[in-house]
Write a structure and sequence with these properties.
This protein is an all-alpha fold. About 70% of the residues lie in helices and about 0% in strands. Among the domains are: about 140 residues, no CATH class; about 80 residues.
């Protein structure tokens, strides 16, 4: 009988998207090789981040080669739930070899390729074509069929045209999308041998900044930071009305800002927060929706923002630290809206918080895990000091490893058992105590095991981003080769009629459609390449705001039915219907649609300006979010009838207009209505008493 091992990569690929608990069984030699490659990839990334940087045609191909090798080992051709068989092993072995050949061909022959200066050899083209096919197959296995079909569609589009390899296909396209077409040789050279293709900017960001920060988040998780953030959230908010739901919001903010994945956030915090929400009175779909919406917020929260902050920085030329700074207030607005939804539901259903006896104290949690905050402080300090984000990530990883070792060494040297309190998923407290000083050999072995676990988890979280960015490079290369971006801009102007609200609505619908088949990062890359120039040049929206808006809209695939990845993951934990849970998540995540409007119509909150203008627009943004939550729920401190909700909605829309008297009028109306609602709530409470 073949010896097997449970795969650490379960839940990362297509076959495990809807059931994050799926575990793939692999022969133990394959698992050992996956672990070895994962550790090797992490070692390579850390070396190039903190010791010796490499040129782009060394760094990116080596990174992608290792990613592809791990993919074809960890994700069988017929899916995670089926055995490979002889045919499967032959296919996977072939693609494994193809990954090595296509990835390292450039590295080995780089000088000769540069010397040919565009006079590509037949081998160059054949290996390039092999690289494209290999990448698309890897993306199908890990990211999903959607991105593979979109990548293939762009390849076919590049070949269509009277001078292309597929002239008949060009005859089927509308006139505005037509182009002269390209030969296979020219297309492959663009995608494989050029700087605007597979090894272009998107993969460059994933292979440098993103991977290091994802690994930093993985190291934090395996050293206990996840439990620390969850316990701290419960200690801070658990006794308030709807406490577990508010703890879910706070914990997801902390975890999401370092994991960079909405689904990873759900499966990390959800098993603790969702059962407690259900116990308190939230319906299962509500509990799952709250967790999904809060976890999605982690993707827009600094410092990691998925891969968003790094991609936006590279595309706009704005320093990464500036992207982080301007993203803080919008992220606060988003989490404020989710928190308000949770609070209003708790008030409407007269929910209480958890008793103090069932909660850890802030003091005990901080005493146990305060050291997890030190690497975050170091990270922020180095970013502000102007150090390269890649090197900052390296030092942050070194800091968390050093802090974890020192803390454990201190406890080990004291030779005293530690009693630690943690929240169980059912809401009860559990205490664990250390057995005293363990043998040094066992301690070192356990520490090494944690390091390997961090590498595996970091690689698992990075697979989707790296492959999506590589396929995004195919799309970027085709857009540059065919001029599709200018054509799409013309289409956008035609359909919107020059109306900025209609243009934003078109972007929103496009992001939702792309989200059916693409992960957030790839959706953002495609959209910003296509609509970014038009939104900036034709509608006059500042470039930074364009990128932020597109990135925010790209998040809706996590919470919007019928394909809501974070919502489905939360439904699995909450044991609720996936569609009903996704509908609730879509409702609680309304900040994804409101806040981008505030960025466009109140740009001072992003691009800055005179202090009085920034403060004025900040206040308007806060009140607008409160107003829209109140309109949607029909409740804040007390119930609000439909007529007043319509008035409140009109006032909120008025504050989006760049006309001072309308802003003032909307502000006055909202303040008066909210004060009247507050008085009504107090009268009700006084009458009940």
């Amino acid at each position: 009988m073949e010896k097997t091992s449970k795969s650490t990569f379960a839940g990362a690929g297509t076959g495990a998207r809807l059931d994050v608990r799926t575990t793939a069984h692999q022969p133990w030699p394959v698992m050992k090789l996956i672990v070895l490659l994962s550790v090797g990839l992490c070692g390579f990334q850390l070396y190039t981040a903190g010791v010796q940087t490499l040129g782009l045609f060394y760094q990116r191909p080596i990174h992608l080669t290792l990613i592809l090798m791990i993919t074809f080992l960890a994700f069988p051709v017929f899916g995670l739930r089926r055995g490979r068989g002889a045919i499967g092993w032959a296919i996977d072995g072939g693609f494994f070899v193809a990954a090595i050949v296509s990835g390292l061909y450039i590295v080995v022959n780089l000088d000769e390729i540069f010397a040919r200066a565009g006079l590509w050899s037949r081998t160059d083209i054949l290996v390039g074509a092999l690289a494209v096919v290999t990448l698309l197959e890897a993306s199908r296995r890990v990211v999903g069929m959607g991105i593979t079909l979109i990548g293939l569609a762009f390849v076919l589009y590049a070949l269509a045209g009277p001078r292309g390899a597929l002239p008949w296909l060009g005859e089927l396209m509308p006139g505005i999308l037509s182009h002269r077409g390209n030969s296979v040789e020219r297309l492959v050279a663009q995608l494989y041998l050029g700087q605007e293709g597979i090894f272009g900017l998107p993969l460059g960001v994933a292979a440098t900044y993103v991977f290091v920060f994802v690994l930093f988040g993985a190291v934090l998780e395996v050293t206990g930071a996840g439990r620390f953030f969850i316990d701290l959230s419960y200690a801070a908010t658990g006794r308030r009305r709807g406490g577990p739901a508010k703890a879910a919001v706070v914990a997801s903010l902390g975890m999401g800002s370092i994991t960079g994945s909405a689904i990873a956030n759900v499966v990390t915090t959800g098993p603790f927060t969702i059962p407690l929400m259900k116990r308190l009175g939230y319906r299962p779909a509500q509990a799952g929706g709250i967790e999904a919406a809060a976890s999605t917020g982690g993707m827009i929260t600094p410092p990691l923002m998925g891969a968003g902050a790094f991609l936006i920085s590279e595309y706009t030329g704005i320093p990464y630290i500036e992207i982080v700074k301007v993203s803080i207030f919008p992220a606060f607005l988003y989490f404020m809206t989710v928190y308000l939804f949770v609070h209003v539901i708790a008030l409407k259903q007269d929910m209480k918080g958890l008793p103090a006896s069932e909660l850890p104290s802030v003091r005990s949690v901080m005493a146990e895990g305060w050291h997890f905050l030190l690497p975050l402080v170091i990270l922020v300090y180095l970013l502000i000091a102007g150090m390269s984000p890649m090197r900052v990530g390296f030092h942050a990883i070194a800091a968390i490893v050093a802090v974890a070792i020192l803390r454990f060494a201190w406890d080990w040297l004291r030779d005293a058992p530690r009693v630690v309190g943690h929240m169980r998923p059912d809401g009860s407290m559990t205490t664990t105590s250390g057995p005293g000083r363990a043998p040094l050999g066992e301690v070192m072995k356990a520490g090494l095991g944690k390091g390997v676990e961090a590498c595996e988890r970091g690689v698992k979280n990075a697979l989707t981003v790296s492959l999506a960015c590589a396929v995004g490079g195919i799309i970027v290369g085709v857009v540059g080769l065919t001029g599709l971006g200018l054509k799409f801009a013309a289409l956008m102007m035609t359909f919107s009629g020059g109306n900025i609200v209609l243009a934003l609505f078109i972007v929103l619908i496009a992001s939702l459609i792309l989200g059916f088949g693409l992960p957030v990062t790839a959706s953002y890359i495609v959209l910003v390449i296509l609509v970014g120039p038009a939104m900036s040049a034709e509608f006059g929206i500042p470039l930074l705001i364009v990128h932020l808006v597109v990135f925010w809209y790209s998040q809706d695939s996590n919470v919007t039915p019928p394909i809501a990845l974070a919502g489905f993951a939360a439904a699995a934990v909450a044991k609720s219907p996936p569609v009903a849970t996704s509908v609730q998540a879509w409702k609680f995540a309304k900040g994804l649609y409101i806040v981008p409007l505030l960025m466009v119509f109140n740009p001072e909150i992003i691009v800055g300006g005179p202090v009085q203008d920034v403060l004025w627009n900040g206040v308007l943004s806060l009140l607008t979010c409160v107003a829209f939550v109140t309109v949607l729920e029909g409740y804040l401190f007390a119930g609000i009838n439909w007529l007043l909700r319509l008035v409140l909605l009109a006032a909120g829309i008025a504050m989006l207009q760049p006309v001072l008297w309308l802003e003032v009028l909307g502000l006055v109306v909202i303040v008066l209505l909210l004060l009247a609602n507050l008085r009504a709530g107090r009268r009700r409470d006084h009458g009940a008493a």
